[in-house]
Amino acid sequence: MAVTKKSDLHTDAPLWSATPHISVRTHARPVRSRYDVVIVGAGISGALMASALADGTRSVMVIDRREPVGGSSLASTAMIQHEIDVPLSELVKKIGARDAARVWSRSMDSVARLADRVREAGISCAFQHKKTLFLSGDEMGWRALKDEAELRAGNGFEAAFIDGAALREKYGIERTGAVLTSCSASANPAQMTAGFLRHAARNGAELVRKCEVAEVGAGQGGVTLILADGAKIEAGKVVFCTGYEFLKRLARLDHETVSTWAIATPPATAHPGWLDDFLVWEASEPYLYLRTTPDGRIIAGGEDEADEKAHLDKSKLRRKADVIAGKASALLGIPKPDIDYCWAGPFGVTPDGLPIIGPVPGLEGVFTVMGFGGNGITFSQIASELIAAAIDGKTDPDAGLFGTRGRDAPHSAA
Fold first, then answer.
1. Is the confidence at residue 104, as pLDDT, over 60?
2. So what's the pLDDT on residue 97?
3. Distances 68 to 16, 46, 293 between C-alpha atoms, Å
4. What whole-number distance in Å separates Cα of residue 320 and Cα of residue 15?
């Protein structure tokens, strides 16, 4: 038994699995029987959480049923966007104008904070600041994108609408319009995850590999974890940073798991020079997104399917990769690129596009970080801020925007 859902979090070998400096030193089993904080999950969410909580004064342990950096973070395309998958205009309809603006503001701030943390921790992960082009598609045409840009600007967010003629002239893209913003980023997600885990370890965190939680219980004395081998661990607080392998007790919430695909071209693939400064994605279903790496690869993805097992089909992997390469070619006006790496994996979605971050109802002292949509790294940064504040006995004013309570009920339109 396990308290979280089990999934194969990626199919085939993602590009990042072949990059250096993604391993970390670990223990085979816990050294202690009690910790101030236990973090379950050694992906980017767990790494950022551990780095935020390990301060040399509290005892922190990070455990994972896999090797660290071996889950969905390895399959991320690391489009570190301030934009969430649900446009601001749509989020307003779902959660109200005030809360939607707060979510977007927090998301934008989190990209800047993440950049600061990478720099302060001395992590080498090809972190680059990027602009974003959000292109018109079959879900949103130029009028809708123009309204979207105006709504963002009206809420104080930097955003500009570009019409079809300007898109063609400046970027060589044949679309009717786009929204241009400038506060996103990209990185090597495996190196980033490993870097934050090492940073936490330098501050006293203990990292334990291939250690699975079978049971969790909470009482006045704290939280008790029963591991798969029967060992018992006591903790003051426990944070489940298990991403798409969500806590089974929260499966009642209105979310689903879908499959997605991605490719990486060889280094120095021919592409427009402007692309090196941008993340590009489109308002279509399924949508295409793409960016470049410092060595000139194009990373592109999409072709999502509402089937959490579809990514396991190896023959579908090759077909999807070919479709994505063809779409990238058509969008950028370049020859169809070769495919150096292709991979697939599941990811979670919610109706409002927001993650679930906060205390687990009915389990005092237990928190969860359930990543959703295409903004896992951005939401992981937000989660580390919200939950670190809660564990420190502080109240973050935005905690209620991402909490577990009431997420299965309609939001107020206020």
1. yes
2. 96
3. 14, 10, 23
4. 16
Which of 103, 7, 9, 98 has its CA nearest to residue 353? 103
Nearest to 343 by CA among 312, 308, 297: 312
pLDDT digit string (tens) for 170-186?
Answer: 999 999 999 999 989 99
- Whether 237 is covered by a domain: the verdict is yes
- Structural domain harbouring 53: 15-76+190-253+353-401
The reported pLDDT for the residue numbered 86 is 87
DSSP annotation of 302:
E
Among 205, 302, 299, residue whose Cα is nearest residue 258: 302
- 141 and 285 housed in the same domain: yes
Query: For residue 211, is it within any domain?
Result: yes
> Does residue 317 sit in the same domain as residue 241?
no
Q: Looking at the structure, do residues 265 and 154 belong to the same domain, yes or no?
A: yes
Q: DSSP state, 410?
A: P
357 and 248 both lie in a single domain: yes
Eight-class DSSP state of 48: H
Three-class SS of residue 345? strand
Closest of 404, 400, 410, 411 to residue 106, by C-alpha: 400
pTM tops 0.85: yes
Q: Is 394 helix (H, G, I), strand (E, B) or coil?
A: coil
Rounded to an integer, the average pLDDT of 285-292 is 93
According to the model, what pLDDT value does residue 108 have? Answer: 93
Provide the pLDDT for residue 5.
Answer: 46
Same-domain pairing of 260 and 337: yes
* Amino acid letter for position 66: R
Pair 286, 325 in one domain: yes
**CA distances from residue 362 to 219, 390, 405 in whole angstroms, order as listed:** 10, 17, 11
182-230: pLDDT as tens digits: 989 999 999 999 999 999 999 999 999 998 888 988 877 899 999 989 9
> For the domain that residue 220 is a member of, what is the CATH number?
3.50.50.60
Contact present, 338 and 346 (Cβ < 8 Å): no
